[in-house]
Amino acid sequence: MAEQTMDILAKVLEQSARVVEEKVDAQLSKLSELDEDDLDRLKERRLEALKKAQKQKQEWLSKGHGEYREISSEKDFFGEVKDTKNVVCHFYKNSTFRCKILDKHLAILAKKHVETKFIKLNAEKAPFLTERLRIKVIPTLALLLDGKTKDYVVGFADLGNTDEFSTEMLEWRLGCADVINYSGNLMEPPTVSQRSGTKFTKVEKKTIRGRGYDSDSDDDD
Predict the structure, then answer these.
(1) Where do runs of H (alpha helix) occur along 66-132?
(2) Got the DSSP string for 157-168?
(3) CB atoms within 10 A of CB 164
(4) What average pLDDT does this structure show over 148-168?
(5) Percentages of the chain per state (helix, strand, coil), in multiples of 5
(6) Which is nearest to 153 in space by CA: 128, 166, 171?
(7) What is the pLDDT of residues 42-80, one digit of tens each?
(8) Which of 63, 112, 118, 125 has the greatest count of CB atoms below 10 A from its CB?
């Protein structure tokens, strides 16, 4: 009985290998049949795609992408998010040292992810927005898609509850909200050395709207 099973398995594997081999041969044959005109057309498509990507990048840069900038008022906020697909806005206070930690990481990510606009706004100058967006913890990142708030990063809870989180950790968290083009594994955060007492919050890839945050302080010094 065992011998028969082995024979069947061997035949299945042989058939599978033959199918794969035939597919590879077909692909190679197709490539070999390409003439010079076909190759030229492929090159043209590739060049056109590169030109389109470069044009899109220039358009983003002209709208203030590619750098981490401070805006001065709530009116500026609405102007910045209008007609902009991806926006990360850092609500900060000068008295909160953790805001400066975020500043460092956001400046790096703004240069890397030009598809997204990275801005910051002093929460004390934006009472209407902080009330409307229910921002009670500083720092808070508001993550917007097509002008609508999709998600929030509140304090450092989603970043390992540590001041020493990596830029990659923040990048992963923004990727979970689809506010940047993230190429890593969204199922798990980047590997970091976890110190005693450090916890990671599993972030589901979903829209979070109008969430009321309970915090013991709105000035997380």
Answers:
(1) 74-81, 97-112, 127-132
(2) GGGTSSTT--HH
(3) 13
(4) 95
(5) 45, 15, 40
(6) 171
(7) 778 888 888 888 887 888 888 889 999 999 999 999 999
(8) 118
